[in-house]
Amino acid sequence: MAGNNKRVIVVGGGLAGLAASIRVAEGGVPVDLFSMVPVKRSHSVCAQGGINACNEVARQQGYSEYQHFDETLYGGDYLADQGPVLEMANWAPRIIDLLDRMGVPFNRTSEGFRDLRLFGGSLFKRTHFAGATTGQQLLYGLDEQTRRFASEGKINKREFWEFLWPIIDGEGEDRRCVGIVAQDMRTMQIQAFRADAVVMATGGCGIVFGKSTNSVICTGGAASRCYQAGAWYGNGEMIQVHPTAIPGADKCRLMSESARGEGGRVWVPRKKGDTRDPTSIAENERWYFLEEKYPKYGNLVPRDIATREIFDVCVNEHMGIGGENMVYLDLTHMDPHYLTEKLGGILEIYEKFAGADPRFTPMKIFPAVHYSMGGLWTTYTPGDYQPESPAGIHNPGDESPASTAVGQGMEFGAHNNMMTNIRGLYAFGEVNFAYHGATRLGANALLSCIFDGLFNGVSVTNYVLDGVAEDQGAATVSAAVFDHAVEQEQAKQAQLLATVSDSGSTDPQFNPYTIAGELGVEMTAASTVVKTGPRLEQCLEKIKELRERYSQVKLGDAAAWTNQSLSFTRALGDMLIMGEVIAKGGLLREESRGSHYRLDFPDRDDDRFLKASVAEYNATSGESTIMWKDVQTALVKPKPRTYGKVEEKEPAREEAVAASGS
Amino acid sequence: MSGEQTFFERNYFLLRRLHSLSGIVPIGMFLIMHLTTNSSVVWGAINSRELHDTAMDRGVATFQHEVSFINNLPLLLLIEIFGLWLPIAFHAIFGVYFAMSGSNNVARYAYQGNKRYALQRLTGYVGFVFILYHVATLRWGWSWLTPGGTQWSHYFASSTLAAALKGSGGEWSFAGVIVSLGYFVGVTSLVFHFANGLWTAAITWGLTVSEKSQQQWGRVCAALGAGVMLAGWSALFGFVFLVDHDRAVAVEEQMVVEKYGPEYLEKLREKYDLEPEMQASAIRDAADRPYPGPAPKLDD
Amino acid sequence: MSNTATNGQPSSAAPVPTRTVTFRIKRCDGPGQPTRWEDFKVPVVPSSNVISCLNWIAEHPVTASGQQTTPVVWDCSCLEEVCGACTMVINGKARQSCSCLIDQEAPREGDVITLEPMSKFPVVRDLWVDRQRLFKGLEKIKAWVPIDGTYNLGAGPKEEPDDQQMRYTLSTCMSCGCCLEACPQYHKEEQEADWENAFVGAAVLSQARLFNAHPNGKVLEGERLDALLGVGGVNDCGNAQNCVKVCPKEIPLTESIAAIGRAATVHAIGRFFRGK
Ligand SMILES: Cc1cc2nc3c(=O)[nH]c(=O)nc-3n(C[C@H](O)[C@H](O)[C@H](O)COP(=O)(O)OP(=O)(O)OC[C@H]3O[C@@H](n4cnc5c(N)ncnc54)[C@H](O)[C@@H]3O)c2cc1C
Ligand code: SF4
Ligand code: SF4
Ligand code: FES
């Protein structure tokens, strides 16, 4: 089938990248898989809570794939195109089955069925999990299959290789991606690689915010490079802040939502500044503010709501523990054995990094940047389900308007599924903006990553085999195109290395780590839980200043071997541009939707902003411009997103707006 | 696998497992037997079948019986070669080879298990050197290596052993102190090596898998080791501190006379170049000694 | 600008350092280059760990004696002890640097923390080593379940919760290499050609057990055991049991080794009677 030396490059060895590699290799096209870290160490390994899918138990209680789809849209405040989300929800049970066959040790019921847990954004148990390290287990499952393909020579793993730039041939509409430039992080050798399609699966960009729950490799550098090379970036401003993280010196470690799913309760002492030992504070002296404000969902409200409520309680009402920005996440009312079995891994993390046992002491937590709903803009071919008019409210037990057959939401195997605006360049996983709209529901990310790889991997294979004419394959592209790309990267590197001064005086003004630190603090302060126009403008000013300083950055290491400073500093330039996109989108989106909360525009504004923000980079000016693209809402009619909140809380918000004076 | 495999590589598993097995059967089993036999020089004191006056004499006599029994086994040399020397050589050669593939990191990882791992190798080396010395001096008759140049004889098992440990005539010599200490270290090493090896063998063969069962088996091995150690130490203690050389000779000569007659004793004297004076007195003592009961049965 | 829009993140109100700790770091510019020690005085806060200190050094690459130097090179990713990247020899012992809290490792004023690269793997630069051999080992034992493909073929086999728990525990191995670093039977092999006959180590043995325990993974049990019967296989373990002591994931490695030993015994006997 592929006797025609066609190849695919996958950049990124997280869930999305591995699933894509496996699927493409299985389709008969050899894959070159690039990753900055051994794929087994990709950031996906951090995911704890689980992966969503409709299942028999939930189904018999009235749940369905369609409802999973509906919840995902509702959770994302209708900012996602609906077709792909429907397809993803429909595929979820198949994906779980496949992972199960790969040997992923999903937790079991006593009868040997896969166990389920409750997760935010749903009233049904629909989250499958493997201990408290689901992401790790899923990643390993795929890593093992990848290893199998690698041992058969079908996947060529290039670990410790950094993607530097996509190689794009042609102009305007004819542009297509024909390979990448990459660098061996040990030898520092820069090299071009040909491919008929390139799949970006490089994950999120949490490091733009300095301390986040992300791994240190999640700089967003790779996405930013594609963006600078002409790919569009969608909904950059949609950054999810996780309500429960453990603040730390180097990162904020996640306390999974499963802690709430298993019964964890969020509270603060009713008395302001109470410094008593939490276990000695009586029940009636505790304020379970989530349960009080959202009697229906209680502690399991979606992330953005939980985050904002915690934030509100701490920052606006100064009710945080001992006056600090922290609240209790309490599991101590539960059986320690049960907790160990269900949450062992994450409780260990708390114990390890905070030094106290959460089975006996309530944990102290605060929100932290967690996930980027935004990402490279992608397109797709709609599927067969095309209702006359969008469906209204869907209640449990209602008959699903759409079937679960393959291709309802997206056409299976269509060449352009999750392709960026550049032909042959795809974006899968967290780096893809497609599925989660304005907020991602817990345990939906792992699903979207694997779904991208498995479902859209077929699109890649089809595109490469049928969409690229035999005489137009990447192999026919002139060597000059590749040489030029390599030279460009070499020049960039030489320029950075030339800044290393012999005298060794390092002015913090131009120290890359200092600049990165300032970027993180600024982005976190201006562009996370609560945003305002003036603050975002200030943030953009700050980024401008940082970009200015970056142009004179001084590297501390001139080595031509394993130069991490060089790699980091290069990525820093890309992070600054990413930061600008995020802040700019946030500034221009004058509404509140999902994770994006504008104090000065507290309401959702479907008329103006039921649209994706799409950023485009001007390579000459270095500026980003934002376009607005309509969101496809033909399947479900957007409805207000309240999660059954008891309404007496509204005045408090207005007061806050008034108090902000902005 | 790349290229041709050597015989060693092809049979690696078998050789490894034989190495493990040989440490238990026959070597370990022999060790137990050997040390219990030898400790009879002490525990024989409570042997009611021996009717000597003193406890020590009963011990010497019991030990002598055991030694004689073994020495009268048919095809002894074959048994020794195939049941003992070859297995020991095999166990030792491969043991040294395998041990050389390890490296000691007890300084950094001072866990109990790691210490035992290091000790297992150390005691293997020590034990092997000790066995060589032990066999060379007492079995092959390299008497120039013993303090006082004593030649061990299975007809005079206790007395010649005591002399081989301490010095000629069972009198302490400086070399004797060294050799006795050497025996203490050697025996201790071997018993540890055996007990610990028995514990690890159960893991190697997969008999004890769970941590609990490994612990349990560890206790069993420790108890067994302690028992064998007690036998070994008491034997050594007996030969070094309890056996009275002259009295022992008397008991032994009497047993030779009873079994083979005085002429045979003369022959033995000649062969072993035994000092006539002492032997004369000894035989007279033996002949004079009134035996209150029938002589113990020996197969003739 | 109101303070409500500054998002009150802890990062903006970082705690003031309470004291400094000296780091002695073994450095090496690349394979075949000489090694040297460099000292750094690093300010720490109660939540500091080795990684946050290395980050600080990267930003301030000046030794304790005031010498300008290069940022230290090291490997890390998740910072929550789940990716396995950041293994180092800290004060003589192999462990994850991200979970090494300074207040626990160097609680007293004047305490020194030494950092060295793992000694059992070739050094790439400074604290970064090449652990490719470990992954090759996983390939050698076919550490995967041989599924029929990614088509939709229904669920996998049902499984008892106890079996799942057992597999889950083994499956948390993050290939960090601590167990190999501490193992007296595991040695550095620079050349890939020598990996074939060198000891695979506890992690790989345990993974063989993991996949043999899966109803479908079992299909390859014979091949896995064949790979482990030879030189460098299960027999090369000397039962020092350091591996289980240092494993940050507390994987019952010695149980795995015994289980593989048992399977190997049975397999070898079977092979003998079947005549291979
Ligand atoms: C702490 C935490 C817990 C989470 N828990 C859950 C959960 O319970 N459920 C859920 O559904 N989701 C969860 N998520 C989200 C989910 O883990 C991620 O969205 C998902 O793993 C992303 O996978 P990915 O394949 O897109 O990318 P990643 O896993 O991030 O992988 C990115 C890959 O790209 C490579 N890469 C990056 N840049 C380059 C470059 N320049 N050159 C070469 N390679 C590069 C990296 O080496 C890596 O292999 C969690 C996230 C975090 C941070
Ligand atoms: S038990 Fe085996 S694998 Fe573990 S440290 Fe000891 S020798 Fe190494
Ligand atoms: S077994 Fe433990 S120590 Fe060894 S690599 Fe796995 S996690 Fe690390
Ligand atoms: S950085 Fe992942 S284990 Fe330490």
Task: Describe the secondary-structure layout.
The complex is a heterotrimer of chains A (about 650), B (about 300) and C (about 280).
Chain A lengths: L7 E4 L3 H12 L4 E5 L15 E2 L3 H5 L4 H11 L6 H20 L14 E3 L6 E4 L5 H18 L3 E5 L1 E9 L6 E9 L5 E5 L2 E4 L20 H8 L4 E2 L4 E8 L6 E2 L3 H4 L3 E5 L16 E2 L1 H5 L9 H14 L10 E4 L5 H19 L8 E10 L2 E2 L48 E3 L17 H23 L11 H19 L14 H15 L6 H18 L13 H25 L17 H4 L1 E8 L4 E8 L19 H11 L2
Parallel strand pairs in A: 1-2, 1-10, 2-6, 10-19
Antiparallel strand pairs in A: 3-5, 4-5, 7-8, 8-9, 11-18, 11-20, 12-13, 12-17, 14-15, 14-16, 16-17, 20-21
Helix pairs in contact in A: 1-5, 1-11, 3-4, 4-11, 6-15, 13-14, 13-15, 14-15
Chain B lengths: L6 H4 L1 H32 L11 H17 L4 H25 L11 H27 L18 H10 L7 H31 L6 H32 L2 H16 L1 H11 L3 H13 L12
Chain C lengths: L18 E10 L6 E10 L5 H10 L27 E4 L2 E4 L5 H4 L6 E5 L6 E3 L2 E2 L2 H9 L20 H11 L6 H5 L19 H11 L8 H9 L12 H5 L6 H22 L2
Parallel strand pairs in C: 1-5
Antiparallel strand pairs in C: 1-2, 3-4, 3-5, 6-7
Helix pairs in contact in C: 4-6, 6-7, 6-9, 7-9
Bound molecules: flavin-adenine dinucleotide, iron/sulfur cluster (SF4) (2 copies) and FE2/S2 (inorganic) cluster (FES).
**Number of domains in the coordinates of chain C?**
2
* Strand residue content of chain A: 15-25%
pLDDT average of chain C, as an integer?
92
Count of extended strands of chain A: 21
What is the fourth-level CATH superfamily of the largest domain in chain A? FAD/NAD(P)-binding domain
Taking the sheet with the most strands of chain A, its summary is:
6 strands, antiparallel
Query: Within the largest sheet of chain C, what's the order of strands?
Result: 2-1-5-3-4
The structure class of chain A reads alpha+beta
| Terminus-to-terminus distance of chain C | 80 Å
Calculate Rg of chain A over CA atoms: 24 Å
CATH top level assignment of the largest domain in chain C: Mainly Alpha
